């Protein structure tokens, strides 16, 4: 080899080495150790993931537990405890799941098909999404130590997505825990396979989690809630701080490393604070007025349409978001923009029309004579109260008479289950990962949407496996939604969270925070 | 106590709200809520629930928290230390500020001292606790960085950290309470200083300091002790706002979250404890009366 060739070879190798070194700066910079203090708004009602749809439980439990599947950055199911996607029989009635081998629970026991079968059956009996799926499930059984088979009664498009959603999740527990706690009973032993294990729960003080050293990350790159999860920190300390102003002050002084659910009015203040990063949490909720369609005034479709036509939503959203354009979004799709597969872009929908004349005409057609409409809200969630109050003004300008009833949250969630006690109530709708999971379109949820056309379309969606056909059906649902107006959809509201600048690796695109792959650089 | 128990039970059960709907989260179906209500016995008639409550109470069982998954007695015990420490610290501050202020204002009635101190006391009564607390946090924690914003450390495990966490809440709460003590101490001092025996003491040529502290103060103390007793009882029930703003895991925070979640057994437990504390403190105050004023004797 000539000297020139040798020189070229050395130069090429040097450049390659430099490129490689430059491509992994984070890996080199990631530091192990430290305690991450997270301020959140209160105590979870339980850490039993099967038991509640409460968001705070979802956030905490998803650090301890995992399911067979998780969601990637585009809200698509990806394998987690399952080796890969299930093998589906030709008739579409049998799903076979191969489990990853050597996965340990926090108690040191290896996860097997017996744990998975027991967990799925408990989830199917208790969870909102589990019950939904199990209505179509004939049997779940262990084929061998690492294989589980699910038989469905009819073709079902929602098997994998139902197993992947993080709320009220199909978390896998050890069978011993399942045997101890029947579905209707909250589990008080919290053992999972997740990257963090629970160390201590002292109500009103902290929930302490530690790195699970026997955790085996997947090989695929991290994406959304799934993929490769590595825990760099030693401890994760969740500190309930119910007062939002205190959480903000603790972020400013550095007493907390991270805080969630902050008051949107603190956005500017946090942005100006040195050493703090204000994070806009997208998506959070779309705001909604849910109508009582079982009894009372709002059973009248024209009246619901008039409500929808009367609203000028942009000023409402802007006000609720504290005047910050970055904290809200105007969108009519029933799935968030971030929920890529189901986000619709239908033009000409009767949304945000702020057409007072149309509203007045519809009120006349409805035979409305100014009877008070009981609109229930709460001040416990400021955004709910704000949008209810602003709606009342706009609706009354259009001819409605609104009896705004402000109650506490516990009263609201009780009364909304009684058709005699209200005409409309405020709430927020979070991310639903499949069209069949939108609770406000179903007859079993307060407001009781029991529309033949919607029911038929949702039934077709549940059985249809082809994505394109499903999307077309979903677009039809959206059109029917804006015609029947089971609920009035406002805009998307975002959440506010903050982290200190030494917190590195946090995925700011996630709807709910996760602290795997996060490290402290201090 | 039976009356307190019954009234509290009925009040908390008769206000609208459902603990199960809160626990199960916003997307729970009506069927799930019904199932869980049955599991917790909340579907039974109210009189049956009340009788069961009495029966448990006779066995010394306050029930189990729906939300916290533990016996109410355990939940109360876990939160007793922070509340007692806060109460003691705030009371110390309140007495330290309130009693001398009242004495000076009473002894120099109508002077600039009196007017200045009573204006400050009026402010102390009027200023909302949360406003004072938030301003203290902003000044001493956020701006100056001298003290932590919020939190709690056990005095038994880390006394220095405990003192740092407790200083701001104790001062903000104590300042509020000191105003009441100062006003009562002042009016008692004025009343006592008008008595004949005080005139006699002065006529004998006793120094003003001796007249005030040896003759007037002790006799003015009985109503002041009553106010201190009442303050103590209020603080045991939980200094709700202070505990929430400073994130102290005490009984005040417990009862507020229990009311918001309709955690009936916990609300009943805290109210029972507070009622018992009132009775005990009243007893202590009566004993202290006899010590301060030997003329008071109980048959």
In angstroms, what separates the terminal alpha carbons of chain B? 24 Å
How many helices of chain B does DSSP assign?
A: 13
What assembly state would you assign to the polypeptide chains in this entry? heterodimer
Beta-strand content bin of chain A = 15-25%
**SS-derived structural category of chain B:** mainly alpha
Poorly predicted parts of chain B? none
Task: Summarize the topology.
The complex is a heterodimer of chains A (522) and B (299).
Chain A: H1 3-23, H2 25-29, E1 35-40, H3 55-64, E2 69-71, E3 77-79, E4 87-88, E5 94-98, H4 113-126, H5 128-134, E6 137-144, E7 147-152, H6 159-164, H7 175-180, E8 196-202, E9 206-211, E10 235-240, H8 244-253, E11 258-259, H9 267-272, E12 276-291, H10 301-310, H11 313-320, E13 328-329, H12 356-366, E14 372-377, H13 382-397, E15 401-406, H14 409-415, E16 424-429, H15 452-463, H16 467-484, E17 487-500, E18 503-504, E19 519-520
Parallel strand pairs in A: 1-10, 1-11, 14-15, 14-16
Antiparallel strand pairs in A: 2-3, 4-5, 5-7, 6-7, 8-9, 9-10, 11-17, 12-16, 12-17, 13-17, 18-19
Chain B: H1 2-14, H2 19-24, H3 30-40, H4 46-58, H5 72-107, H6 112-126, H7 129-143, H8 159-193, H9 196-203, H10 208-236, H11 240-245, H12 251-261, H13 264-292
Helix pairs in contact in B: 1-13, 5-6, 5-8, 5-10, 5-13, 6-8, 7-8, 8-10, 9-10, 10-13, 12-13
Which tags fit this structure?
heterodimer, A: 522 residues, alpha+beta, 11-stranded mixed β-sheet, 4-stranded antiparallel β-sheet, 19 strands, 32% helix, globular, B: 299 residues, mainly alpha, 13 helices
Description:
The complex is a heterodimer of chains A (522) and B (299). Helix content of chain A is 32%, strand content 21%. Chain A has 16 helices and 19 strands. Chain A has helices at residues 3-23, 25-29, 55-64, 113-126, 128-134, 159-164, 175-180, 244-253, 267-272, 301-310, 313-320, 356-366, 382-397, 409-415, 452-463, 467-484; strands at 35-40, 69-71, 77-79, 87-88, 94-98, 137-144, 147-152, 196-202, 206-211, 235-240, 258-259, 276-291, 328-329, 372-377, 401-406, 424-429, 487-500, 503-504, 519-520. In chain A, strands 1, 8, 9, 10, 11, 12, 13, 14, 15, 16 and 17 form an eleven-stranded mixed β-sheet that branches. Chain A has a four-stranded antiparallel β-sheet with strand order 4-5-7-6, covered by helices on one side. A two-stranded antiparallel ribbon of chain A has the order 2-3. In chain A, a hairpin with a 5-residue loop joins strand 2 (69-71) and strand 3. The model of chain A is unreliable at 19-25 (pLDDT under 50). Chain B has 299 residues and is an all-alpha fold. Chain B is 76% helix and 0% strand. Chain B is built from 13 helices and no strands. Chain B has helices at 2-14, 19-24, 30-40, 46-58, 72-107, 112-126, 129-143, 159-193, 196-203, 208-236, 240-245, 251-261, 264-292. In chain B, helix 5 runs antiparallel to helix 6 (112-126) and helix 10 (208-236) packs antiparallel against helix 13 (264-292). Chain B is elongated and about 85 Å long. Chain B starts with a helix and ends in a 7-residue tail after the last helix. Chains A and B meet through helix 8 and helix 14 of A and helix 2, helix 3, helix 5, helix 7 and helix 12 of B.
